[in-house]
Amino acid sequence: MSTIQPNVTGRKLPTRAVCERYGNVSDRTISRWQANPELNFPKPIVINNRKYFDEDELTAWDRSRAVAA
Question: How many CB atoms lie within 10 A of CB 44?
């Protein structure tokens, strides 16, 4: 049996793309968001000392922030 995962892209975004996604914030801002446990910002995976963020996790984070606002 297979499980259906709706709207799952599996795309990994580099930090620069994440900065652009949130209005051209700096990579330092992304680091601050990660360091703040209250924000619960998605954790990246690190490949060759570069951070990549799961696009689906970012979308879920966006939705959770919209509900909280």
Answer: 19
